[in-house]
Design goal:
3 helices; 13-stranded antiparallel beta sheet; about 10% helix; ten-stranded antiparallel beta sheet
Length: about 425
């Protein structure tokens, strides 16, 4: 079991294989060793042996082929420092999504605010750049608002260079990129997020964690394919209380709801042969959360490092990999703009380690939530969804991300 960040972390990423046979052999050997006086000498060896029976060990290199640092196992992040930028790593993003409701009118909204950092030349990207227009770090800001009541969607992309245009602190959360500002609140009790939209729109939120921050993956590393370099540090606040104001259509109103935050650091986000991913986060009415993703191979199949995670009310995490869950496309939506087709209604079936068979149906609350950036081949669908159980009952809300359907994503993330 994975646990919150302040608890013991699990072992390194692995593929379970020959589980029953391995443990049968282990039990047999362990029983025989009990008869020997020097059993204590063998116990550590036995547990080491059992680990390698069950594991496919991959030790990440210190640096990628391009020269960027690669996230290392067993790293214990220190906050708020590690909420900041990690300049020596090739890729990084800060990501927020959530569901909000206006207090007076009861109108419902979904929002997405994402800041991407892409490092320049690895020989100099880690050094501070004091120039007004730097070339050591490039930033992208993606802002989107889904008006779920009036069925409207607005989105906005800005690409900026480090310096006068964009800033990201290294020792705390302090971002100013393309209309998205984020900073820690006093006492580090949470953080403030401001997102600006075209025509004077603005979302201003205070985000307070309702659960501990969770670190995903084995020994602190999240796998994104078979390659040893395809790993990331992946830190998440799975449920944040969100309160603030929304200025929209010339009106300012108070809103409140719940949000999800990811912070991910990598130097090669997709393994060889992977073309994209389907990802979701769900916040269920019983106080638990689910995160699942399908890493897509070129033939459309799911990579074996695809995973689903369950976060209980206390922040403890259970997970299974591709062999124990399925991601099934129920319906598609075709964009009138990019002409791309996205599987926006999906059914996820999984074998929970303790509860057995579980099922989640994700259905969009608004069809057209396609994010069209400056590059047409980098369009993706990112949208607010309802979560439905096998009995057809609503059990929560979620966000769904469908990336790589325009092609070329793998090359840009490696």
């Amino acid at each position: 079991m994975d646990t919150p960040l302040d608890s013991t972390l699990g072992k390194f990423s692995f593929v379970w294989s020959s589980v029953n046979t391995g443990w049968i052999c282990l039990r047999y050997l362990f029983g025989n060793l009990l008869e020997f006086e020097k059993m204590k000498m063998f116990i550590p060896l036995l547990f080491t042996w059992s680990y390698f029976v069950h594991a496919e060990w991959i030790e990440p290199p210190d640096r990628s082929s391009k020269g960027y640092l690669v996230p290392s196992p067993d790293y214990q992040p220190i906050f708020p420092k590690d909420h900041g930028s990690h300049r020596d790593y090739g890729l990084e993003w800060w990501y927020w999504v959530g569901h909000l409701k206006s207090e007076k009118e009861g109108n419902e909204f979904g929002f997405q605010s994402t800041v991407f950092r892409v490092a320049g030349n690895p020989r100099g990207s880690g050094k501070p750049d004091d120039r007004l227009f730097g070339n050591r770090q490039l930033f992208l800001a993606h802002s989107a608002l889904s008006d779920l009541t009036d069925q409207k969607y607005i989105h906005y992309e800005r690409v900026q260079r480090e310096g006068w245009q964009a800033q990201a602190a290294e020792k705390t959360l302090a971002l100013k990129v393309g209309g998205i500002d984020a900073e820690m609140l006093k006492g580090d009790i949470g953080h403030r997020l401001v997102t600006r939209y075209p025509k004077g729109g603005k979302l201003e939120l205070n985000l307070i964690p309702k659960k501990p921050l969770v670190q995903f993956g084995e020994r602190g590393l999240s796998r994104k394919g078979d390659g040893a370099v395809s790993v990331s540090w992946y830190w998440t606040y799975p449920r944040l209380r969100a309160e603030g104001t929304l200025t929209y259509n010339g009106q300012k109103t108070r809103v409140k709801g719940e949000a999800w935050m990811d912070h991910e650091i990598s130097s090669s986000q997709l393994g060889q042969g992977l073309v994209g991913w389907d990802w979701t986060c769900m916040q269920l009415d019983d106080g638990t959360e689910v995160k699942a993703y399908r890493l897509r191979n070129e033939d459309g199949s799911a990579d074996r490092w695809s995973a689903i995670y369950w976060i209980d009310q206390s922040g403890n995490v259970e997970k299974v990999y591709a062999g124990d869950f399925s991601w099934n496309e129920e319906a598609k939506w075709q964009s009138p703009n990019s002409r791309l087709s996205y599987p926006t209604t999906v059914r996820i079936k999984a074998n929970h380690p303790e509860r057995g068979s579980v099922e989640y149906l994700l259905r969009p609350l608004l069809d057209n939530q396609e994010f069209l950036g400056n590059r047409s081949d980098n369009a993706y669908w990112e949208g607010a969804c309802r979560v439905i159980d096998s009995a057809g009952e609503d059990i929560g809300r979620g966000y769904l991300e469908l990336a790589g359907y325009g092609g070329g994503l793998g090359a840009r993330l490696n």
